[in-house]
């Protein structure tokens, strides 16, 4: 009886939302690119005469309620010519719109109209950045390697993990607090070459969405950000080949239709040349007794995307990724090392349209990240390995009411984790030494969510939802309720106020003893005394459309506080430790700041300026027989940067030439340096010579010099007989700024006595001015 009453109450509350309006019909459909038939997420679909419109979702679909009669519908998207269609509505109607590529290919970053900026102004969603490959390919890049994650570092609120690295530290969060998704499959280590490049091949990626706060209810499992990467579908019209040849790698992509355009495919690959040159050098010098062999290294990745239309209402999508880094060293002295790491993932998504306003997406995915280290010295060998494997199933339902005032979403996800925390094996040829250990755990993670995007009236819009998440490992179960709410109030057609709040849980943790994400880091589940991390974030801001819609100025202020932040006691044993729970320390964190962002997307000169003023703090009190960290006092982590300024400019000099530039300035990274040394006489351990012991102050009390860098680029479009091609020239660190990477100390010795008289600080810098050239082609 109680269940029946509750059901009746819920139905009575929801019935008005699903009631069909008698005086309106629904115009729905998909927006695609005319040349490739790929869907265009984020395209603007507007009816200017009635001052109404919407944007396409991640699958390029839209739904727009309109009164009966004749309407002019304008559809536009970044880098494409706008299309105007006149339609007469007498019933619900579907309209497929294909946008032709802008006539000027090099003007890809120019937006014809102000739809994109107006969408940012009108949506409740704030703290979101969308980046397309078209934009990223125009910007100067290290070694000419276009990197989408590095481009995101040019957005306010995002810090890098060090010179040249692709790691992201978002609004005071650590690197493991970013949820990285590739077509809804989790990527655990999104980096090649120890963090210098990301795993995302720009030829295969369509767009990247970065959520820094105000997280929609369908996302969960991390505290700081969601990085949602979507792959291209491939051309539905004709077979095409594209790629590029650069200084350190080459890329190749093949795409085309399946079964006369009912589907399409895309296959892309990339590989570096490091090992080709190092092996040649080692071979030439193999007979030189004074020559030291150079290690071999290369990375490679392969992407697959295919889709097929099963019928008018059903479509399936297949995504695959394989990437690996291989490092090897073989010396004449019998010492050999082989180190391999990488990601493998696959996702199968079924999209079903029940009605013009009701959609269902169901995705099954598999993810694996692993690394393996093998060492050998004469007859003795040593191996260390770790892995994490996920099997996941998620389903998302979306419904638009007839008047489009409510966009209702609901869904569920369940993931089975397998954590290979550490596998250790050591043995000798004679079998005198033979031992090993294998530490592994399992865990199940799940989530349920429901949300509603409610347009109250012309001024008010609300986006509210609830997520219920949980995690089970062994005999331990954790869970929590995660409310999400966002609101937008329009003061005028060009000025909006926004605010949001989100609570997040994180049930898996990255075991690392460094500030950056390394291949040897281990993922570890919540279990026993390792409770899930938890954070809350509130943000408020203003969005202002200026210059007749050519500029968008936003200012966001945020405050985030977190519990159960994780670090490790001094001397912690991290590898193949069956009692790793006892090595953890737990504390609290705070992050707050102000982000100012000015963006321009129309005209020959486009780009953005971003400035962030931010603070990040941590506190780990005494616990488990230790003094905690920093003796329990509050300290700043290494990625705390007070000021961060980025300027990005793209200028169309001529129909064939684009000039680009980016400038970055950040406050120096926090680090710990000795403030003095204690000298004592060691009669036994050092031959009677004085020994100097460093005296360290509180953690991270020293700031390195500010970081600043100017990158310049030029894209020159060639005129081949067939297809398209261009030369992309880049200059990384144009004025040769020697930015600090780390600091060490040299001893100062008396030339007469060879005794140490003092110490001198030395700065290590990584990259000087680096020019590069890349040849890109498409036919």
TrEMBL record:
Domain TonB-dependent receptor plug, first and last residues per copy: 144-222
InterPro entries: Beta-barrel_TonB, Beta-barrel_TonB_sf, CarboxyPept-like_regulatory, Plug_dom, Plug_dom_sf, TonB-dep_rcpt-like
Family the UniProt entry places it in: Belongs to the TonB-dependent receptor family.
Signal peptide per UniProt: 1-21
Protein name: TonB-dependent receptor
Location (main, coarse): membrane
Stored Pfam families: CarbopepD_reg_2, Plug, TonB_dep_Rec_b-barrel
Key words, A-Z: Cell outer membrane, Membrane, Receptor, Signal, TonB box, Transmembrane, Transmembrane beta strand, Transport
Topology class, membrane: Multi-pass membrane protein
């Amino acid at each position: 009886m109680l269940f029946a009453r509750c059901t009746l109450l819920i139905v009575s509350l929801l019935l008005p939302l699903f009631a069909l309006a008698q005086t309106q019909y629904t115009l729905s459909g998909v927006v695609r690119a005319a040349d490739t038939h790929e869907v265009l997420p984020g395209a603007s679909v507007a009816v200017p005469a009635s001052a109404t419109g919407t944007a396409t979702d991640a699958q390029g679909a839209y739904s727009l309620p309109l009164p009966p009669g004749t309407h002019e519908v304008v559809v536009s998207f970044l880098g494409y010519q706008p299309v105007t269609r006149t339609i007469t509505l007498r019933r619900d109607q579907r309209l497929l719109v294909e946008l032709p590529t802008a006539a000027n290919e090099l003007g890809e970053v120019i937006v014809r109209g102000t739809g994109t900026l107006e969408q940012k102004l009108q949506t409740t969603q704030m703290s979101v950045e969308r980046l397309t490959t078209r934009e990223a390919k125009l910007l100067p890049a290290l070694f000419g390697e276009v990197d989408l994650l590095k481009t995101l570092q040019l957005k306010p609120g995002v810090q890098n993990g060090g010179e040249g690295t692709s790691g992201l530290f978002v609004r005071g969060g650590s690197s493991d607090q970013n949820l990285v998704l590739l077509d809804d499959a989790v990527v655990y280590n999104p980096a090649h070459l120890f963090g210098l490049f990301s795993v995302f091949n720009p030829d295969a990626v369509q767009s990247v969405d970065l959520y820094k706060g105000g997280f929609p209810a369908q996302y969960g499992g991390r505290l700081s950000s969601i990085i949602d990467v979507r792959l291209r579908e491939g051309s539905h019209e004709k077979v095409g080949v594209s790629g590029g040849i650069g200084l350190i790698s080459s890329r190749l992509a093949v795409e085309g239709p399946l079964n006369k355009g009912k589907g399409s495919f895309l296959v892309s690959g990339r590989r570096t040349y490091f090992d080709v040159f190092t092996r040649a050098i080692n071979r030439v010098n193999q007979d030189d007794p004074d020559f030291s062999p150079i290690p071999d290294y290369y990375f490679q990745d392969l992407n697959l995307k295919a889709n097929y239309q099963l019928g008018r209402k059903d479509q399936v999508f297949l995504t695959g990724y394989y990437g690996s880094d291989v490092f090897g060293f073989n010396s004449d002295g019998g010492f050999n090392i082989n180190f391999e790491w990488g990601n493998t993932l696959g996702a199968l998504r079924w999209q079903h349209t029940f009605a013009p306003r009701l959609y269902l997406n169901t995705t099954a995915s598999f993810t694996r990240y692993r690394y393996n280290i093998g060492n050998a010295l004469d007859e003795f060998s040593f191996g260390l390995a770790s892995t994490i494997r996920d099997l996941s199933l998620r389903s998302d339902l979306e419904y638009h009411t007839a008047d489009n005032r409510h966009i209702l979403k609901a869904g569920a996800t369940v993931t089975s984790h397998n954590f290979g925390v550490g596998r250790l094996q050591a043995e000798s040829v004679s079998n005198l030494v033979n031992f090993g250990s294998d530490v592994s755990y399992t865990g199940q993670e799940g989530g349920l969510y429901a949300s509603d995007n409610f347009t109250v009236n012309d001024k008010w819009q609300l986006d509210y939802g609830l997520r219920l998440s949980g995690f089970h490992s062994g005999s331990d179960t954790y869970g929590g309720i995660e409310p999400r709410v966002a609101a937008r109030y329009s003061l005028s057609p060009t000025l909006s106020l926004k605010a949001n709040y989100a609570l997040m849980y994180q049930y898996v943790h990255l075991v690392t003893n460094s500030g950056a994400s390394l291949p040897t880091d281990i993922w570890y589940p919540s279990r026993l005394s390792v409770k899930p991390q938890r954070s809350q974030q509130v943000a408020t801001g203003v969005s202002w459309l200026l210059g007749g819609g050519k500029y968008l100025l936003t200012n966001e202020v945020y405050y985030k506080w977190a519990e159960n932040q994780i670090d490790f006691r001094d001397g912690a044993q991290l590898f193949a430790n069956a009692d790793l729970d006892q090595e953890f320390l737990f504390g609290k964190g705070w992050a707050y700041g102000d982000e100012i962002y000015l963006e321009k997307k129309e005209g020959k000169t486009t780009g953005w300026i971003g400035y962030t003023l931010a603070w990040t703090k941590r506190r780990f009190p005494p616990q488990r027989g230790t003094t905690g960290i920093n003796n329990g006092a509050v300290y700043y982590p290494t990625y705390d940067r007070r000021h961060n300024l980025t300027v990005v400019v793209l200028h169309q000099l001529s129909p064939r030439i684009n000039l680009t530039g980016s400038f970055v300035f950040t406050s120096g990274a926090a680090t710990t340096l000795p403030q003095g040394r204690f000298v004592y006489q060691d009669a036994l351990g050092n031959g009677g010579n004085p020994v100097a012991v460093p005296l360290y102050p509180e953690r991270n009390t020293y700031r390195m010099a500010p970081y600043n860098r100017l990158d310049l680029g030029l894209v020159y479009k060639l005129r081949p007989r067939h297809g398209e091609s261009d030369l992309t020239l880049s200059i990384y660190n144009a004025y040769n700024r020697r930015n600090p990477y780390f600091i060490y100390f040299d001893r100062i010795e008396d030339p007469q006595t060879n005794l140490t008289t003092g110490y001198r600080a030395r700065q290590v810098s990584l990259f000087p001015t680096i020019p590069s050239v890349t040849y890109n082609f498409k036919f």
